[in-house]
Amino acid sequence: EGEVGGRVLEVLGHGGRMAAVVVGLSAWMLLMTAIYFHTWFEKLTGLLFALAGLYVTYILPRWVPALRGAIGLPGI
């Protein structure tokens, strides 16, 4: 292992490593669930709803002051 990789593992400790393993396994399980248990239509509609949610949360408030006040977008 390289010098940087070894230091990262030292800093994380056992708890950090375990948390990284849990996050990695969760991402893997989510991917496998999407691949094997959902149809293409479900995948497409899920993607569209996720993109719509991101748009309403992060993009739209930049031009709609009332929505910006309700959501509380910092820095704008």
TrEMBL record:
Keywords: Endoplasmic reticulum, Hydrolase, Lipid metabolism, Membrane, Transmembrane, Transmembrane helix. It is a multi-pass membrane protein. The chain crosses the membrane at residues 18-37, 44-64. InterPro entries: FIT. It is found in: Endoplasmic reticulum membrane. One of its GO terms (molecular function) is coenzyme A diphosphatase activity. GO terms for cellular component: endoplasmic reticulum membrane. One of its GO terms (biological process) is phospholipid biosynthetic process. This is Uncharacterized protein. It comes from Staphylotrichum tortipilum.
